[in-house]
Records
---
Amino acid sequence: MKRVADIAVIGAGCMGLSIAWHLARAGAGRVIVIDQRGVATGATANSSAILRTHYENPALASMAWHGLKVFSDFEAIAGGPSGFRKTGFLFLGGKKDAAAIRKTSRAIRALGINSVILEAGEFHHIEARTSRDDIGVVIWEPESGHASASVASATLADAARRSGAQISTGETVISITGRKGRVTGIESTAGKLAVGTVVVAAGFRSMGLLEPLGVKLPLTPVRHPIAVVTTAGSHPVAPVVGDRILGAYHRPEGSNQFLVGRYGFMDGDRDESVEEAKPARATALESLLKAFKARWPYEANARLARSYTGVYDCTPDLEPALGPVAGVDGLHVAAGFSGHGFKLSPAVGEMVAGGITGDSSRIARADRFDVRRFELRSLK
Ligand SMILES: Cc1cc2nc3c(=O)[nH]c(=O)nc-3n(C[C@H](O)[C@H](O)[C@H](O)COP(=O)(O)OP(=O)(O)OC[C@H]3O[C@@H](n4cnc5c(N)ncnc54)[C@H](O)[C@@H]3O)c2cc1C
């Protein structure tokens, strides 16, 4: 029997699931999510799921703030847990960057986001245990924290199914078919599917799916190591720390562990075998542990418990590619999240689905993230 749907979403990571849920609950038609492996098995599986809002781009700050509000009230909004923990987020900047960081904090505060600039004395009241001699500025986000990407994705998948979406796992999309400038279907390992709208939310693999349609999305797959560090004692109220000075972030995990990752989005090995689980390099782990101990001097006896790596799908400007693709009717993209997409996924779901149903989102405009910007730039 011929398979037919109205909208196919390629990829069941946090983005594909969020988009599908928004589409299905808006009654956009028959929605199918297709994933070559399973729900949350790509970058989403390894996400540290940190929710913070300090972005220079105001659209991203608004999207992150929306994500924070959604994940902190996920039971009421999506009908299940997100694993949210409100730990607060401390962003530490050096003396050189202090003026620019203060400016960003003031700008996002003007958007209604709870971002506070702390002076040296006030910082001590929030977190007295860190070293501070090298710090030029501290931003405190009291409402931020982290979620669990796998828990939130499972909730989203259930919510999407309950709203009528179908999720097909173990099915690989081979190509998107089109005629006369419009999408007509997809070909996958399960055969042909006739469909009028396709959303490509396939992480780094989005690039290869879009290329035959003449759409250039330059993505670099960058493999990021995460060190899981066990501390000597417990840390019941440790905040998430974004340490721009020492180049690492620390996220509490349970009461006696931290996930420690690199701060720089492009710091890491270029690696196209994104589906393979690979161990972190010993040198990378050593430097992460060193940065952690330097910031938390009382944790001199902390030790490495385990490690893993995950892949960032980085665009040249480290901002995502979102929304309809001009020139190919029925084709939409949600990719290139460059290592900071989890927190944006509730907003991306609303914005990309709205671009299909015609309901414009008030969070931010998707055309700011138009995929065609890369081609236009390369023509200059
Ligand atoms: C180590 C690490 C830590 C991170 N920490 C944070 C953080 O703290 N905060 C934050 O906001 N973000 C973080 N991120 C980034 C965030 O996790 C990602 O931006 C987000 O998960 C991307 O989701 P996605 O749905 O776009 O991609 P993915 O989760 O990669 O999903 C894409 C899916 O597409 C499927 N697919 C690919 N090709 C095909 C095909 N041909 N046919 C069918 N299916 C296909 C894949 O199987 C995959 O499941 C982190 C990422 C990593 C790797």
Note: The chain has a mean pLDDT of 94.
---
Amino acid sequence: MGFEGFDAYASEYDSWFIENSNVLESEVRLVASCLKNAGDVLSIGCGSGLFEKILADKYGIYIRKGIEPAAAMAEIARKRGMEVVVGTGENAEYGIGEYDTVLFNGCPCYMQNLGVALRKAYDALRPGGRVVVIDVPKESAYGLIYNLALAVGTWEHPLLEGCAPLMPYPIEFVKQANWRTTAEKIAAIEDAGFANLTFAQTLTTAPHYSHEEPEEPCEGFRKGSYVAITAYKPK
Ligand SMILES: C[S@@+](CC[C@H](N)C(=O)[O-])C[C@H]1O[C@@H](n2cnc3c(N)ncnc32)[C@H](O)[C@@H]1O
């Protein structure tokens, strides 16, 4: 688990998403749907700022600041115009009462201690602010197939033939991840003091077909392979 792979393979990460444009589009639509009237946004694990750039260009949603541990990814995000501090979600300073939204998009599975980061997010938010936690649930179709690839150590395995995503997530990134169930994330979010949880999801087809067309997000968490949990700091 960690971010070292993202330092070594920063450009591969963007290339994979750009080739996988329908998957990227489905995920961006989900993120955008959770960031309506989001106010001042802090993005944890912002990576190369790829999502943030699309959110700004296509949706007029601007991220005030990012925190990202992989210096090579942070550098790409800066070139895209973001202000980024290099640090992990667990160790970085978020500030106190400075934001209306803290976003964790696709990074919880790389974090050693999500609870610590969520407590920092709570402190960084103004009363009534929201945390948005988005990731692949361990129990989802993608979560299961990623863990199968992890167990066999490659996408080139007979068990994955004919069922893997057409352009699978680079195995270097799979090997560093620890996907959590939605139930585990809910427990961590509630333990940090957040309330009024809502859920939205995308990538609801079998992974082998998710590249075919972009999807609109829908409510809930039981069928999607990319799930957003939004929760609020009480006023
Ligand atoms: C799948 S990428 C997501 C990047 C970006 N949010 C996006 O959606 O394109 C995961 C990111 O989490 C970062 N990461 C790894 N460990 C982390 C940690 N402990 N705290 C915060 N981010 C971390 C990685 O460096 C990487 O940029």
Note: The longest strand covers residues 125-135.
---
Amino acid sequence: MVKNVNIGIIGAGAIGCLFGGYISQVESDEIELNIHLYTREKCKKKISKEGLIIKKGGSTRKFSKLTIFDEPVLPKTKILDTNYAFTYLFLTTKAYDNASAILEYDDLIKKAKYFIILQNGIGNEDLIVEKFPNKKILRAITTNGALMEEDCSIIHTGQGLTKIGLISQRKGNSNQLKIEQEDKENLEAIKNILTLAGLETTIVEDIEKDCWEKAFINIGINAFGALTGLRNGEMIQNSGLKNLMECAVIEAVNVAKAKGVNIGKKNYVDLMLDVARRTSNNKNSMLQDISKGKTKTEISFLNGKIVKYGKQLNIDVNINEVLTNLIYGLEISNRIKNT
Ligand SMILES: NC(=O)c1ccc[n+]([C@@H]2O[C@H](COP(=O)([O-])OP(=O)(O)OC[C@H]3O[C@@H](n4cnc5c(N)ncnc54)[C@H](OP(=O)(O)O)[C@@H]3O)[C@@H](O)[C@H]2O)c1
């Protein structure tokens, strides 16, 4: 029998539309996929009328096999497990929108079997675990790159790898949610769906560790780019700046270790510098957001989290504290310019 799988994506912007579009074209003899994108009114109108456009390299593809909403409407399509409206519900807003999004989409989240946070940042799940303690929550991180244009079309700027894993809720508590065999199978199933969609995906045992590792790179690059206006490669040409970038990562690694995060023995400073070198022409996303006049960034979920945890653990986090406050300053400055 063909199994119906409902997938929802809350906050379908650049990454959410990229994933939603590619997933919507998956064809399989065993499953019938229904994709529901939850986005803003402007994009809902545009995509419902003209389909979702994804550009990559020189090619442009149009995806029309998806349903799009600008409010928390439950899908009408049936799934076999009647307890749930969605098998997988993704959250792809920016991390700073999590509080408002989970409030608005509360009912949909309750009716989802698995809730997948596909975002950058550390501890993004905390709020969600607190509000939905019995929900099976996953985190996913991706090195795919995407941009949403003014007309809501998507540019797939770089092919990458996606990592996914169940988060271990309520760590250290005997009341931990049990991971059943069924969960392992469903995790494998979403990995296969993403892979069929052309999004190379791997399941990881300790996704928390991977989120931290990705954050180390962002912590060493993003705020520095936003503050200086420099491209990734330009920043490491200046020894003073490069030294500060290294210090920010060292502070973050110290905090991770003190928090008991199971990070490996990799040299995260070298990794960060290597990424900056390989992406030397890039203007990072925080720089792009600030340049576009956005009044919010994900700083609180990157350097800001290092400051929060560092202070709790009595660890020196001076560089990250300065960076966090300077970025808050840029956010305020954009708010003033916008008024
Ligand atoms: N883009 C990339 O290449 C990339 C790569 C790796 C990881 N990431 C991570 O992926 C996450 C998403 O990034 P992104 O670049 O896709 O951001 P984005 O383009 O800003 O997409 C987020 C979307 O969510 C919408 N949104 C926010 N609250 C909503 C709500 N309550 N209901 C419906 N829509 C809502 C936003 O609309 P408004 O703008 O109108 O608020 C925006 O369209 C971030 O954590 C980012 O760090 C991104």
Note: Residues 208-338 form a domain with the N-(1-d-carboxylethyl)-l-norvaline Dehydrogenase; domain 2 fold (CATH 1.10.1040.10).
---
Amino acid sequence: MADFREDFEGKVVIVTGAASGLGKATALGFGNAGAKVVVADKKVEEGKEVCSELKGMGTESIFVETDVTSEDSVKNMIDTTLKTFDVLDILINNAGTGGPHLGQPFTRTEAVDWDTSYKVNVRGTFYCCKAVYDLFIKQGHGKIVNMASIAGKTGAAAIPHYSASKAAVINLTQTLAQELAPYGINVNCVCPGLIYTSIWKGLGYLMGKNYPEVFADMSPREVFLATIDKMVPMKREQTEEDIANAAMFLCSDAAKNITAQALNVCGGAEIK
Ligand SMILES: NC(=O)c1ccc[n+]([C@@H]2O[C@H](COP(=O)([O-])OP(=O)(O)OC[C@H]3O[C@@H](n4cnc5c(N)ncnc54)[C@H](O)[C@@H]3O)[C@@H](O)[C@H]2O)c1
């Protein structure tokens, strides 16, 4: 993990979807760099465990049960943060989902897939950004990082609704960055490539089942590795820590003149 202690000592950070995967690694990364971390997720047990892990490292941390698809729940996340820590410096919008039918060809996706991925990935990001907009302007500083995906730039077979929702997250980021740039507030995206978290465990299983001509008799992990071989020029998987490092870099002073960007962390998958 990169060392960002000088940037984040004492800063207050919210990470949504921090109960697992990339959000958990990002929360731990900020905690390790001396930030105070708000773990926000709808998964209570796992979220509290991450919070305990942070406290075990000597980090000040609270867990706030949050559903980013509910504007009231998002407002409660911000209010609780401000009641506890007085300020908010950084918002990481990481909560995301692929909906119930990942790993299917386009014509087999259904309205529920499109609605679910847009509701969490796009509307959830919108609610969280809206909730800090006036606060960040009033306090004269703030950083926002939205978790998009390389699929939002290239499109991706087997996850059409998810890809489109992540393209919307990139676009939302560009718009918001334009509005907030005059106030010195940076808004960027990270576009992760392929990381073997719970999303990919489910996707690997479904792709194996739905594309038997390509992935016959492969385990989810084998499907994941075969996809890396096909899609990633660097021929290796990306890690949770790679994504945490990118998110922290975009919130660091070294990136103070970087805004409206969508930083790929994907081993070159966009140029495949
Ligand atoms: N793993 C990858 O390869 C990959 C690639 C590109 C982008 N991403 C994105 O990275 C982010 C993190 O994904 P991950 O791979 O760690 O998956 P994950 O499933 O391990 O983590 C997602 C977290 O978001 C939380 N969440 C989902 N809906 C929520 C809601 N409505 N309110 C609050 N929390 C909610 C979940 O409870 C979970 O803890 C997502 O936005 C995902 O789309 C992941």
Note: Residues 16-17, 19-23, 41-43, 66-69, 94-97, 120, 124, 147, 149, 192, 194-195, 197-200 surround nicotinamide-adenine-dinucleotide (CB under 6 Å).
